[in-house]
Amino acid sequence: MRTKRSVSALIAGLLFSSLAATPFPAHAAPVASDEEAKILIQLDGVALPAPVDPIQYHARTMVPFRTIGTALGLDIQWDDATRTVTATGPGKEVKLRVGTTTALVNGQPAALDAEPILVQDRVLIPVRFLSEQFGAKVGWDEATHTVQITSQPRQMETTVFYGLGSYDKRNYLAKFNNTALTWSILNSDGRLDVAQSEYRWPTDGADELLQEVRSEQVGTQLMVFSENKSGEITKLMTNPALAQQFANDLVKKLQDQNLDGAMLDFETLGDPTKDDVKTVRAQYAALVKLIADTLHQQNKKLSVVMAPLNGWYQGYDYKEIANSADELYIMAYSYVDDKLPQPNDRISEAIQEAREFVPADKLMLGINAYSETPQTVKDKIGLAKRYNLRGVGFWILAVFDPDFMKAIDDTLILHDETKDVILGG
To answer: Domain containing 414 — which CATH number?
Structure first.
């Protein structure tokens, strides 16, 4: 495994909620007046809403720590007796006390250029400290009065889809935790098929490719694709014997090829103009449970591709499917033309809606590489980091180029690398 040094630090940013106590009068700061321009926060290229606005205090820009710290994925504790916030992240513990200009970083004193203050029962800290001690990159846009924060590279689960012309990009596979092989479909009879259509098992090179990825300890999943064009998904959902046969065939294929698991990419489960959506949801959740139970008995993993809850198709029961599957992959794209970057606000909405039903550590954010640029892919990864999701997945490796891969590499700690951490500036 290769080692790559990065000056970006893994941060430990922090903040706490709900300080149900009266602030120290000497350290309380006023909210910005109507005459003052409102200060905004942008994290990883996307606006970050906060319960209290940043303010200017003693000529320093003070930012709400809970909002930012939570988005940076830290463990945060509040000690009401000492008015102290403790934030813990990889390799670092930071303690900040309201009204005190000395912080403790891994037990050692560190100077603040302004003391933490309470505003509307929220702790605000100087943004400069966030940059110097927690490894975030912080900028300022004077024209828009925006604090621009770029989060640290973070380790997350990563999946990339392989197939459909990806062979020339196979050297990138070692950078990802998992690859989803687009080598099978559900045929019109409701059976697993690896010999038809563009989604087929390669006649040449498959064994060598699998040997390569296994040597790099990259996980392997067999994607099974269907759009229900011949009613094949409906057949599985309404015929328990056929569903069990499919599950058995799938397990056998995974065992024969020594693959780690499967990914169901079943789209348009029924006719939305005719079928009762509630019935379809229940039928598909039951099908997923049958398949998951069969795979789990043989220690195989199941991932399920899902349309976003704020998309046009509503046939997926997130909660029930999450009870059976190991992870859910949200196709948070196709909101606009797939040749264009997808809207960040819709993706943020899709994540928040999914989290109402599914633990964040089961959610993978799907990113369409056809749509995104090296800059906009960072926005999408930033949203997955902000909401502390399990990870991100990319459709599809065939369209990657060096700039796109570098953008991902700059934003995440990838499977093939260890980024040394420089703590404390």
So the answer is: 3.20.20.80
Give domain status of residue 425, yes or no: no
And the tokens for 166?
């990806």
Q: How many domains does the chain have?
A: 2
Which residues lie below 8 Å from residue 298, measured CB to CB, with a gap of 6+?
Answer: 251, 254, 255
Same domain, 386 and 272: yes
- Helix residue ranges per DSSP H, 168-298: 206-215, 232-238, 240-256, 277-296
Beta-strand runs (E) in 296-422: 301-306, 327-330, 363-368, 391-395, 412-413, 419-420
Ranking 39-43, 44-48, 66-70, 189-193 by mean pLDDT, the lowest is 66-70
231-281 pLDDT, tens digit per residue, is 999 999 999 999 999 999 999 999 999 999 999 999 989 765 677 889 999
Write out the two tokens for 420: 């040394």
Q: Which of 80-94, 161-175, 205-219 has the lowest mean pLDDT?
A: 80-94
Q: Are 105 and 135 in contact (CB under 8 A)?
A: no
Is the C-alpha dihedral spanning 25, 26, 31, 35 positive or negative?
positive
- Mean of the per-residue pLDDT values for the chain? 89
In our burial notation (b when 16+ CB lie closer than 10 A, e otherwise), range 155-193 reads ebbbbbbbbeebeebbebbbbbbbbbbbbbbbbeebebb
Omega cis (within 30) before 125: no
Measured at the CA of 10, the angle between CA 94 and CA 100, to 5 degrees, comes to 20
CA distance 389 to 243: 31
Against a cut of 0.70, is the pTM above it? Answer: yes
What are 80-96's pLDDT values in tens digits? Answer: 899 998 888 888 999 99
Q: What pLDDT digit, counting tens, does each position of 309-333 carry?
A: 999 999 999 999 999 999 999 999 9
Strand partners of residue 139: 148
Distance CA 138, CA 147 (A): 7
CA distances from 386 to 15, 42, 99, 151, 239 (A): 14, 12, 28, 9, 41
Residue 82 and residue 214 in one domain: no
